[in-house]
From TrEMBL:
Cysteine pairs bridged by disulfides in the record: C183-C209
Record region (Disordered): 307-327
A GO molecular-function descriptor: heparin binding
Name of the molecule in the record: Vitellogenin domain-containing protein
Main location: cytoplasm
């Protein structure tokens, strides 16, 4: 089980030590991490890919609009590629919004939440280093103090950027690394320009993924935002579909949109219709400037792309703190 949280002064002390060692560690950069990845990813090294990111999570009783609660995240995303298959993700300028009402046409009206600033600070505090050796499974090197729920949101962003490899067949089933683990995925090339796929889509049944844990917390860290952290008695279905637009020349992701739909029956509730949670993530490319830095240090902690439960490893008090941060 997870270690006990030390009292605050110790945390501060550790933090100071950490800051100190990280300065020192920067001199010890591994200049030549040589992954075996010829053209395994779509991102060229010595470039930075700047995206606008938007994620919306809404939950409500199926078939009704009034009880729907919606939360929206916006961030600027920078994916820097200092070396082949090595990346540094930076998330800045985040905002967190929620619905405060509906206009006469039934359209949701959104406003910034009280803790939007706090959320923005947490999202931009640490960069996240990752590597995708051989272009297959992502290895993440989070900073020691990165909170799990923030790391999970970053995992969601990375996952939305991982376009499957191009295939010659128009349709193919592949096993791909996702935030829900290893998932059987139907990959379709919908448009080609010459030989190059310019539009692709993926579909997956999330219950088939080996890392999908609907019982532990909520189905998605984005769903967690609105406090859906109670055990789900019956998950009826969970599916995800993504659409990618790719640059015809350089093959990077110009736009990615992933939609998830989770349908479940809540615990002890008279509701016979079930609750539906939708999560939509959109990434839109804004710029691809060149960079000079080849610096990439792996970091000591290594984790995978799959979401980590934020509840089972921490006492209830901390789960509350998570919700406070995000609500
Ligand atoms: C890598 O790129 C080259 C040239 O663009 C191509 O001929 C080769 O098939 C690619 N290799 C893989 C594994 O995709
Ligand atoms: C994913 O699952 C499939 C089928 O069980 C397996 O063949 C494949 O090796 C797995 N991939 C990874 C990266 O674990």
């Amino acid at each position: 089980m997870g270690p006990q949280r030390p009292p605050l002064p110790l945390v501060l002390l550790l933090l100071l030590l950490l800051l100190d060692t990280s300065v020192w560690a920067q001199d010890e950069v591994l200049e030549n991490v040589n992954w075996n990845c010829p053209n395994a990813t779509r991102f060229k090294h010595l470039r930075k890919y700047v995206y606008n990111y938007e994620a919306e999570s809404s939950s409500g009783v199926r078939g009704t609009a009034d009880s729907r609660s919606t939360t929206k995240i916006n961030c600027k995303i920078e994916l820097e590629v200092p070396q082949l298959c090595s990346f540094i993700l930076r998330t800045s300028q985040c905002t967190l919004k929620e619905v405060y009402g509906f206009n006469p046409e039934g359209k949701a009206l959104m406003k910034k939440t009280k803790n939007s600033e706090e959320f923005a600070a947490a999202m931009s505090r640490y960069e996240l280093k990752l590597a995708i050796p051989e272009g297959k499974q992502a290895v993440l090197y989070p900073e020691k103090d990165e909170p799990k729920h923030i790391l999970n949101i970053k995992r969601g962003i990375i996952s939305a950027l991982l376009v499957p490899p191009e295939t010659e067949e128009a349709k193919q089933v592949l096993f791909l690394d996702t935030v829900y683990g290893n998932c059987s995925t139907q990959v379709t090339v919908t448009t080609r320009k010459g030989n190059v796929a310019t539009e692709m889509s993926t579909e997956r049944d999330l219950q088939q993924c080996d890392g999908f844990q609907p019982i532990s917390t909520s189905v998605s860290p984005l769903a967690l935002i609105k406090g859906l952290v109670r055990p789900l008695s019956t998950l009826i279905s969970s599916s995800q579909s993504c659409q990618y637009t790719l640059d015809p020349k350089r093959k990077h992701v110009s736009e990615a949109m992933c939609k998830e739909e989770h349908l479940f029956l809540p615990f002890s509730y008279k509701n016979k219709y079930g609750i539906m949670t939708h999560v939509t993530q959109t990434l839109t490319l804004e710029d691809t400037p060149k960079i000079n830095s080849r610096v990439f240090s792996e970091g000591t902690e290594q984790v995978g792309l799959a979401f980590e439960s934020t509840k089972s490893t921490s006492p209830p008090k901390q789960a509350e703190a998570v919700l406070k941060t995000l609500q």
